[in-house]
Amino acid sequence: MRHERGPARPEPAERQPPVERHAPAVAAAPAPPPQAPGTWRFTAPATESSVPRLRHTVRDLLGRQDTPVPGEAVDNALLILSELVTNAVRHAALLSPYIGVEITLGGGWLKVAVEDSHPYRPKALAVDPQGEETSGRGLLLVKAVTHEAGGVCDVEQTGAGGKVIWAALPLAAGA
């Protein structure tokens, strides 16, 4: 992430308070306050290391909310996030060196969306009856988890020609 810094020295008009010679020890900064429902956006490189980083970031974000997010919804959202980011890394990185993640919490719903710049619109593959395939079923898993939770998911084209794959999960059980 990119952060901008201000000037290293105070402007001449600014006066700094005198520094005590024996200042008391500084206490550790308090944890950030809980957040109200809203939307959070992240950008990450389309690399394998982004999968666990984004998962941990979103887990921590959801844990700081005023609106309680049930454990099952958090677990489902993290699984969905991991699958969608992994798909973007594996299948879209050539045309999309960065991916976008958007988390929306509000109105009784938790929405996870992953955006990339690749134009291909994927489809969930069918279940392999012989069980011989060891990969390629991520979107099928996303669909199944989402629908079992009573949610919805879809793929949408972006104005720039890429796509957003999203899943929305209800926060209330049996919704």
Give an account of the 3D structure.
The longest helix has 22 residues, at 71-92. The protein has 175 residues and is an alpha+beta fold. It is globular. The two termini are 37 Å apart. The protein has a 5-stranded antiparallel β-sheet. Mean pLDDT is 79; it is low at 1-29 and 31-35. The chain is built from 3 helices and 5 strands.
Blueprint (SSEs and pairs):
Layout: E1 38-45, H1 50-63, H2 71-92, E2 98-106, E3 109-116, H3 138-148, E4 152-157, E5 163-170
Antiparallel strand pairs: 1-2, 2-3, 3-5, 4-5
The CATH homologous superfamily of the domain at 41-123 and 135-170 is termed: Histidine kinase-like ATPase, C-terminal domain
The arrangement of helices and strands along the chain is EHHEEHEE
The assigned CATH architecture of the domain at 41-123 and 135-170 is: 2-Layer Sandwich
Strand order of the largest sheet: 1-2-3-5-4
Average of per-residue pLDDT values: 79
Poorly predicted ranges (pLDDT <50, ≥5 residues)? 1-29, 31-35
Assembly form of the protein: single chain
CA radius of gyration: 21 Å
State the helix count.
3
| Helix share bin | 25-40%
CATH class of the domain at 41-123 and 135-170: Alpha Beta
Instruction: Determine the CATH topology of the domain at 41-123 and 135-170.
Output: Heat Shock Protein 90
Helix/strand class: alpha+beta
Q: Write down how many β-strands occur, each being a DSSP E stretch of 2 or more residues.
A: 5
Q: What share of the residues does DSSP label as strand, in percent? A: 15-25%
Domain Histidine kinase/HSP90-like ATPase: 45-166
Organism: Streptomyces cacaoi
Protein name: ATP-binding protein
GO molecular function: ATP binding; protein serine/threonine kinase activity
